[in-house]
Amino acid sequence: MFVSQPILRLALTAKWYLGATILAGLGASAAAVGAAFSFAAAVAAILGSIQTGSGTADASGTAAMVAPLIWAGVFTLARTGLLWLRDQFGTLAAISVKSRVRSQLMNHLFTLGPGRPGAGGTQATVVDGVEHLQAYVGFYLPQLVVTAIVPAVLVGILATRDFSVALVVLLGVATVPLAQRLWNRMLGERAEEHWEAFSAYSARITDTLKGIDTLVALGAAKRQGKRLTADAEKLREATNANLRASLGVSVVTASAMSIGTAGATVLAAFHAADGSLNTADVLLVLFLSAECFRPLQELQNYWHEGFYGIAAAAGINRVLETKPTVSDSPDAFPLALSGPPALEVKAVGFTYPGAGRPALQDVSFTVPAGATLAVVGRSGAGKSTLIQLILRDVDPTTGAVLLNERNLRSLPLAQIRRAAARVAQDIVLLDGTIAENIRQANPEATDADFREAVAGARVTEFTDRIPGGLDSPVGEGGALLSGGQRQRVALARALISRTPLLVLDEATSALDAENEALITEALHLGGNSRRTTVVIAHRLSTVVSADLVAVLDDGRLVEFGAPGDLAGQGGHWAQMLHAQLADVSIAGLGTRS
Ligand SMILES: Nc1ncnc2c1ncn2[C@@H]1O[C@H](COP(=O)(O)OP(=O)(O)OP(=O)(O)O)[C@@H](O)[C@H]1O
Distance, CA 229 to ligand 1 centroid (Å)? Predict the structure, then answer.
C-alpha cells in the first residue's frame, strides 16, 4: 500500500465523490456475494429435486430454482451498474482533485517570487504530474478502502461454511499487503527517481524549444540533441528500474492469489468428498474465495496505473513545500496611500544566498514623493538587486526600504504588488491581442484611460499601420511584435495601471531616440508627477530627464544628487556623461565617400 500523505490531504477535498466511489465498490462486492448465494440456492434447488426424483430435475425443482436465478440476475445487473457508478464517481473525484491541485500549485508559484523553481520542471509537474494523479486518486485510493473491508468480511462468511477453507484464503489474502509493504520503500525511491528523470527531460525539451533559434544560430543544435538523448536514456533506465520493482510485487501478489484460490478449491473438493460440504456449498465457497481476491487483483491493476501519480506526487510536494522568498509579517497592515509615495533606502545591504560577497552594501538615499530616480552604474554594480529590494521581491540582509516612512516588511505584500508597476527589459506578453495585454493591467480602466495609455506609450503609432490595429494578436510570448513594439505595449500596461510607484528596468532600451523621448514625456519622468519612478537606464536622454541620479559601483552608492549638480563635480556620473557624449560625437561624425 502506498499512500502519499500530502496528496491524501488534497484527495480528501473530494471526500463526497471518494465516499461514493468507495460505497459503489463495496456495493458491487455485496452484489457479487448476493449473486453467489443466489446461484448456490438455485443449484441446491435443482440438486434437491434430482435427489428426490428419478435422476432428472422435476417440475417442483425447476420452479424452486426460478426465484434464486432471478435474484442472481438482479444481483449481477446491480453489480455491473455499481461498478459503472464506481468508475464514474472515481473519475469525478480525480477531476476535482486535479483541478484543486493545479490551482494550489499555481497560487503557490505566484507567491514564490524569484526563488521559484525553473519553468521546465514546473511545467512537467503542473501539467503531466497532476494528470498522473487521475488513476491514483480516483481508483487506487478508494480501492484501498474496499480492499481493507471486503476480503475480511468474506473470510468471515467463508468461516461459517468451512473454517479450513477460510483459513487458506486468509493466508493468501494476508500475503499480498505484507509483500507490498516490503516493496514499498524500494518502490518509493524508484518513483522519485523516475519523476526526477521525467521532469529533467521535460525541462530540457522546454529549454530547447524556447532557445531553438539561438541553438541553430550558434551551431549548437547537435550538442543539445546529444544532451536530450542522454536525458531520454536516463528516463528509460528509470522506467525500467520501475518496471522491475513493480514486476516483483506483481509476481508475489499473483502467486499468493493463485495459490490461495487453488488451495481453497482443493480443500473444498476434499470436504465435498468426505461429505462435510454439499455441492451447493462447494459452489458458494468457490464463488466467495474468488471474490475475496478480486479487490486485491483490482488494487494491483490500479497500482500499476496510478504508479506514475505516486511518482508525480513527490514532484508536486516539492513545489508545494518550496518556501516563498518573502512573506507577509503577522502584524502587517496597509499603508494609507493617496498619492505617489516617498521612497527611502536606509543603510541597505544584500547578499544573495550562497554568494561570497554582498551585491549591495550600506546604500542610503531618499526619493521625494512624485520624483524620478535614475539608477546608473556598470554591469554588476547592483542596479537590478536594488530594484528587487524596492519591489520587495527579496528582503534586505541589513537596513530597510521604506515607503512613506513605513518599512516594506510591515506592509501586506498584496498592497506592494498593487502599488507598483514594473516594466522589465525582457518583456513577457501573454497570448492574446495587443488590447487584451494592455487592459490586463487594469481591467476596470475606462476607454479614455485606455486611449491615453496607448497614445502615451506610442502603441498607436504602429497599430494604426497594421490591419487588425489594437486587436491584432501578439503571438506566443509576443513573438509577432518587434522588441520595441513589445516594450511599448508593456509601457502602456504600466501607464494604464496608474500605480503610484513605477519601476522601469531598461524598459526603453529597444526604442529609437525619438520614441524614447516622447514616451519619457508621457511617463512624466521629471518634474512633479502622479507617480514616484525608479528607472534603470544606460541612455543619457533618460537619465538627464530624471530628478535624481544614484550612481552604484561594486554594490556601493558612490554618488547621489540632481543630474545637473553631479555633472559638474567631475565624479563617476560626470565621467559616464563624458564617455557617452564622446560616443555620440564619434557616431555623429560624417564620412567622406
Ligand atoms: N541570483 C543571484 N545569485 C547570486 N549572485 C547574484 C545573483 N544575481 C546577481 N548576482 C550578483 O550580484 C551582483 C549585482 O548584480 P545585479 O544584477 O544587481 O547587477 P546590475 O547592476 O543590475 O547588472 P546589469 O547592468 O549587468 O544588469 C553581481 O555581482 C551579480 O553577479
Answer: 33
From the CA of 436, how far away is ligand 1's center (Å)?
A: 33
Q: Identify which of 345, 348, 352 to mutate to test ligand 1's pocket (most ligand atoms within 8 A of the CB).
A: 352
Atom of ligand 1 nearest to the CA of 355: 4
Three cell numbers, residue 509: 532600451
- Give this complex's ipTM: 0.98
Residues with Cβ within 6 A of ligand 1? 352, 355, 359, 377, 379-385
Q: What is the pLDDT of residue 588?
A: 47
Residue % of the chain over a pLDDT of 70: 90
The C-alpha angle with vertex 143 and arms to 139 and 147, in degrees rounded to 5, equals 165
Instruction: Provide the 10 A C-beta neighbour count for residue 15.
Output: 11
Q: What is the reported pLDDT for 388?
A: 92
Tallying the residues shown for the chain, one arrives at: 593
Q: How far apart are CA 185 and CA 316, in angstroms?
A: 19
pLDDT tens per residue across span 100-111: 888 888 888 888
Question: What's the whole-model pTM score?
Answer: 0.70
> For ligand 1, what atom is nearest to the CA of residue 114?
1
Task: Supply the residue whose CA is at minimum distance from atom 25 of ligand 1.
Answer: 379
